[in-house]
Amino acid sequence: MTGAPSGPGGRDSQDVDALITDRYLDSILAAHGRGADTGPVPADVQPAFPIRLAADRLARDLPRLHPSFRFEETLAGKLSQAAARMRLPVATGGEPVSLPIPGLGAPSPVAAGRSDVLVRLRLDGPIEVGRPLLIGGAITSAAISLAGAAYVAWRIRHPQASPMVRAARAVARTRLT
Amino acid sequence: MARPALWRVGRPEEGEPRLAHLDRDRRLVEAAQADPARFEALYRKYLAQVYSFAYYELRDHHEAEDATERTFLSALANLGRFEERARPADGAGASTFRVWLFQIARNAVAQRRRSRRRHPEAPLEAAFNVADPFDMELAAVRRDETGAAARALARLPGDRRRALILRFVDEMTTREIAGILGRSEGAVRVLIHRALRSVARELDDTQR
């Protein structure tokens, strides 16, 4: 199907075309969500060819973006402080106390200045293959596992005595400041 | 506090319908409303989506960060006023919290735009060519097709552009986008259809 024929008023036909386009987008975005190619799409949800082409291009080519991890951790800190102020009983007139947000105690690799870490993430859901994700200015082309990221964070927190490890930690501290 | 939103689910032949909450973020939202420190889970979950939306809208790394920061600080401050409004028609993955959050993001972006108009820096159309570190790296690795798609998107007027960003980058449903843009679902469908027609023309011209 290449679009509904124009009705007498034109408006109905446009609504039908828009509905077909919407169903087509549902199908291709769902396929992207599964990390799959679009695959065959039923004829009744295929919009006109130019629309299909444009939709496929946008779905494939528009990268998702992630802010720098330094920004992420900085804002997490601000939110933590704001949350702490919200929790303070006003009547006590006490000074705001910074309360740790669960999970923020341990620096992530990026909090340690690893803004160049290459990862590939699905924003909300399973890990996706398909289009690039830009992280704080760097395009990603490879993937590391979350376990790897956790290991880096653990390694930073658990120093060994070797000079190389001490040097790595010193660099990480410098990048944090 | 969030208004409890309970809906009957299940088919009649399955016996008594169950009552269920439909908003997929309900538990996270309730936890954050009870203890603001637990807002972090929602923050981590939606940070990249909000930032993506802001960046595509503002085409500037720093402004996008600023809008993102305002969005989350404002969401945290106003979380007590958030009301869950998920309905059965919203589908299983509905998040009215996400719609609410993006309404805040939309306002934050609009605020940055107003500020930019008062203090103009660079034309929006040229933003993808601005020589900031982000764009230099982006340009170095981006395929021509990606640049063409992004430019076609950037040339679209207001809500058409926003609708495509929310649909393609943030992968929202038409219903969610309708909630964010304050339009009917049918109107958003037509908006997206027309926007895609414009993008198709633009891409066609680029290839010639």
Structural class label of chain B: mainly alpha
In DSSP terms (H or I, runs of 4 or more residues), the helix count of chain B works out at 9
Report the oligomer.
Answer: heterodimer
Dominant shape of chain A: elongated
Unreliable spans of chain A are 1-9, 90-129, 137-145
Strand order of the largest sheet of chain A: 1-2-3
Which percent bin holds the helix content of chain A?
40-55%
Mean pLDDT of chain A, to the nearest integer, reads 63
- Shape of chain B from CA axes? globular
Quickly list its features.
heterodimer, A: 177 residues, mainly alpha, 3-stranded mixed sheet, 5 helices, elongated, B: 208 residues, 9 helices
Question: Can you characterise this structure?
Answer:
The complex is a heterodimer of chains A (177) and B (208). Chain A is mainly α. In chain A, 46% of the residues lie in helices and 5% in strands. Chain A contains five helices and three strands. Chain A has helices at residues 11-33, 49-61, 69-87, 146-157, 163-176, and strands spanning 64-66, 133-135, 138-139. Chain A is elongated. With 208 residues, chain B is mostly helical. In chain B, 63% of the residues lie in helices and 4% in strands. Chain B has helices at residues 26-34, 40-58, 61-77, 96-118, 133-141, 144-154, 158-169, 174-181, 185-207; strands at 6-9, 18-21. Chain B has a two-stranded antiparallel ribbon with strand order 1-2. In chain B, α3 (61-77) crosses α4, α6 crosses α9 and α7 packs across α9. Chain B is globular and about 60 Å long. Chain B starts with 5 loop residues before the first strand and ends with a helix. In chain B, 45% of the residues are buried. At the A-B interface, α1, α2, β1, α3 and β3 of A face α2, α3, α5, α6 and α7 of B.
Detail the topology: elements first, then pairings.
The complex is a heterodimer of chains A (177) and B (208).
Chain A (H helix, E strand, L loop, with lengths): L10 H23 L15 H13 L2 E3 L2 H19 L45 E3 L2 E2 L6 H12 L5 H14 L1
Parallel strand pairs in A: 1-2
Antiparallel strand pairs in A: 2-3
Helix pairs in contact in A: 1-2
Chain B lengths: L5 E4 L8 E4 L4 H9 L5 H19 L2 H17 L18 H23 L14 H9 L2 H11 L3 H12 L4 H8 L3 H23 L1
Antiparallel strand pairs in B: 1-2
